[in-house]
Amino acid sequence: MESDIELQKVVLNELEWDPSINASRIGVSMEDGIATLNGEVESYAEKVAALHAASRVFGVRGVADEIKVRLPDYNEQTDADIARSAANALAWTATVPPDCVKVLVENGWLTLEGEVNWQFEKEAAEAAVRSLRGIVGISNDVVVRPIVDRLEVKSRIEDALERHAHIDAKRVKVETMGTKIILRGKVSSCFERKEVERIAWATPGVTEVEDDLIVDLG
């Protein structure tokens, strides 16, 4: 198991490796396997890329976000311009159902609202607007509307975990509470944890996922 100092170096290397990130503007501190990222970036998309880069490093148990988005002059937009661009981006995204997701913008912060049938549609809506100029943050408040029998949800998730090459399904316990999924057990990395959560969210009928998984590097 790597020390915090060693993990810090690996995370910094991962940030430098990603061409979409200006690593010189981002600081990393590490304590008990939890990486805290701070500093300033020029877009919300770069902030998201940095957080994802840190989370995919083996040995990192969690990532805390203290990065600020400070837009350069050429990226600044009015709230009306951002709302118009976001609405157009959603309209042109094939995986987002027409007229199901609305946008609200206040001081550069974009909020997505509405209802969709699948989690991937909710994620597609956020992905469609993430790289727009002028955005300093996104709140994805889109609700996933259940469309299948709840009794099938648990078995579908367990089957999907069994099929995944990078997940030890025997160490993951899936519990259901209505349309809510509770994940318990142990995983070997942040990547595996995110994959388990992704599979749970990808299952039709799931409206909420509680991730109580523990990253166990032993």
CATH architecture of the largest domain: 2-Layer Sandwich
Fraction of helical residues: 25-40%
Mind telling me the C-alpha Rg?
19 Å
Shape: flat
Distance between the termini: 8 Å
Number of domains: 3
Number of helices: 6
Low-confidence stretches: none
Based on helices, strands and strand pairing, what is the structural class?
A: alpha/beta
Task: Give the biggest sheet.
Answer: 4 strands, mixed
Beta-strand percent range: 25-35%
Provide mean pLDDT, rounded.
Answer: 90
CATH topology of the largest domain: Histidine-containing Protein, Chain: A
Task: Give the SSE string.
Answer: HEEHEHEEHEEHEEHEE
Under the CATH scheme, which class of the largest domain? Alpha Beta
Strand tally: 11
